[in-house]
Design goal:
This protein has 377 residues and is of the alpha/beta class. The protein contains eleven helices and eight strands. The strands form two sheets. A six-stranded parallel sheet has the order 3-2-1-4-5-6. Helix 3 runs antiparallel to helix 10 and helix 10 packs across helix 11. It is globular and about 75 Å long. It starts with 8 loop residues before the first helix and ends with a helix. Pfam families: CTP_transf_like. Keywords: ATP-binding, NAD, Nucleotide-binding, Nucleotidyltransferase, Pyridine nucleotide biosynthesis, Transferase. It catalyses: beta-nicotinamide D-ribonucleotide + ATP + H(+) = diphosphate + NAD(+); nicotinate beta-D-ribonucleotide + ATP + H(+) = deamido-NAD(+) + diphosphate. One of its GO terms (molecular function) is nicotinamide-nucleotide adenylyltransferase activity.
Length: 377
């Protein structure tokens, strides 16, 4: 007698169809993704450059790059390949202008988390202040030469003094990269200030490079374009982008707060703020930390590294095994109490405790100090 075996045909069949459908959808999705990437690669390539003091660089300076990149990617008209920050020369002489070395160091620290915004220190290494048009033209020429030479003069795998700011992968294609000036609406308005800009420079910037203007909600930048014959003539080269998430924290506001001894925590990148404190920039004041209680080993070496233009990568991330330094405490009078104890003023002559930094607090900020020290060795 032969036993009859019953196979769960329906179960097997449905599972097979389910898997086949999954792989078909996956294959279709992969093909669609590849098609989208191929389409993006055919778009005209652009890069942004922002010129200014950056004394200090604020989050809004960097947000402008992200806002502009989002705009062009959502429009699907261009492919953004890089962003460049070019601090102005020391001879610009603006009030509150920190030294070029300090400003470059702060920009370097502020852009550590970005994989496409880079510092160019070419302008600060010139013999004198450079006009914005000249800065734009230099960087555009360098990009053109880099692409046309197939990467000669500083490839993607190495940085030279001038090439550290170059976007990666430029010579993967011979397609040109159009460098545009990224700015706020205040720069657009400054074109109308008599004697501030040479008309030839304005025309060259707008006609040959183009403007990407980040404006505030409720502003009317179109009126400034209408009032200018030059801007109206080349208005097709001006991209106006509204920032719907306003941020009014400016460099001048940061300097004012620091000079008053007020907190700017969460208004600046933590590493930039640590750098300002260590270097005592912008008349930095503190109600709690003075020269008498500042440990000498925390003072920065003011010499600027010769390799500032090199990009920081994952190898620059500090080791998780942080080194602990001895606890540093200072009291205006009285003995040092046990750790964690509180000293209260109960009468004249009693001790008032001033703690600069506990050992556990140092552990929290040690990573920041190590990152900063890489810029300041």
């Amino acid at each position: 007698m032969i036993a009859k075996i019953s196979w769960p045909k329906n179960t097997i069949t449905s599972e097979c169809f389910r898997r086949i459908g999954y792989f078909k959808r996956r294959s279709k999705s992969n093909k669609m993704s590849a098609f989208i990437e191929e389409t993006k690669s055919l778009l005209p390539r652009i890069a942004f450059i922002a010129c200014g003091c950056f004394s200090p660089p604020t989050p809004m300076h960097l947000r402008m790059f992200e806002i502009a990149k989002d705009h062009f990617e959502m429009q699907g008209t261009h492919r953004v390949v890089g962003g460049i920050i070019s601090p102005t020369h020391d001879s610009y002489g603006k009030k509150g202008l920190a030294s070029a070395l300090d400003r470059c160091a702060m920009v370097k620290l502020a852009t550590q988390s970005s994989n496409w915004i880079r510092l160019s220190d070419w302008e600060v290494h010139q013999n004198q202040w450079m006009r914005t048009q000249a800065v734009l033209q230099h960087h555009q020429n360098y990009i053109n030469n880099h692409i046309n030479s197939g990467g000669a003069g500083g490839g993607d795998g190495e940085d030279t003094h001038l090439a550290g700011w170059l976007p990666r992968g430029l010579h993967d294609s011979r397609d040109p990269v159009h460098l545009k000036l990224l700015c706020g609406a205040d720069l657009l308005e400054s074109f109308a200030v008599p004697g501030l800009w040479a008309e030839a420079d304005i025309e060259d910037i707008v006609a040959n490079h183009g403007l990407v203007v980040i404006t505030r909600a409720g502003s009317n930048p179109g009126k400034f374009i209408f009032d200018s014959d030059i801007l109206t003539k080349y208005q097709s080269n001006i991209t106006l982008i509204t920032n719907w998430v306003p941020n009014e924290v400016s460099s001048s506001l940061i300097r004012r707060l620091l000079g008053r001894g007020q907190s700017v925590k969460y208004l600046l990148d933590d590493l930039v703020l640590e750098y300002i404190k260590r270097q005592r920039l912008f008349n930095f004041k503190s109600k709690y930390i003075t020269d008498a209680v500042r440990p000498n080993h925390l003072l920065f070496n003011h010499a600027y590294t010769d390799q500032l233009e090199q990009d920081m990568d994952e190898s620059d991330t500090p080791s998780p095994q942080l080194q602990h330094t001895p606890t540093s405490r200072v009291f205006c009078c009285g003995d040092v109490p046990l750790r964690g104890s509180k000293v209260l003023r109960s009468g004249p002559g009693q001790a008032v405790q001033v703690i600069t930094m506990q050992a556990d607090e140092k552990e929290e900020s040690q990573a920041k100090k190590q990152k900063i020290s890489q810029v300041q060795l």
